[in-house]
């Protein structure tokens, strides 16, 4: 298992549609890069959003990538 796949499986936990979509995306082709290179603060924020019952969005980086 690659480092990227391991990082995705540990961050995008669960069977929700959003978690599945986030696991399927090749993040290395986005301006924020591969998941294993993300700041811990971004990983924490994404985890909070995925476990929330309420709609949430994160804009990250100078390109304001929407997660």
Summarize the structure.
By secondary structure, the protein is mostly helical. The protein contains three helices and two strands; from the N terminus they run αααββ.
Which properties best describe this structure?
67 residues; mainly alpha; two-stranded antiparallel sheet; 3 helices; 43% helix; 6% strand; globular
Question: How is the topology of this model organized?
Answer:
Layout: H1 3-11, H2 17-24, H3 40-51, E1 59-60, E2 65-66
Antiparallel strand pairs: 1-2
Could you characterize what this model shows?
The chain has 67 residues and is mainly α. The protein has one domain (3-66). The chain contains three helices and two strands. The protein has helices at residues 3-11, 17-24, 40-51; strands spanning 59-60, 65-66. A hairpin with a 4-residue loop joins strand 1 (59-60) and strand 2. The protein is globular. The mean pLDDT is 93.
């Amino acid at each position: 298992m690659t480092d990227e796949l391991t990082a995705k499986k540990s961050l995008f936990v669960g069977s929700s549609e959003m978690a599945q979509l986030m696991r399927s995306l090749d993040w290395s082709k986005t301006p924020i890069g591969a998941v294993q290179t993300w700041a811990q603060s971004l990983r924490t924020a994404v985890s909070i959003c995925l476990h929330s019952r309420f709609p949430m969005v994160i804009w990250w980086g100078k390109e304001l990538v929407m997660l």
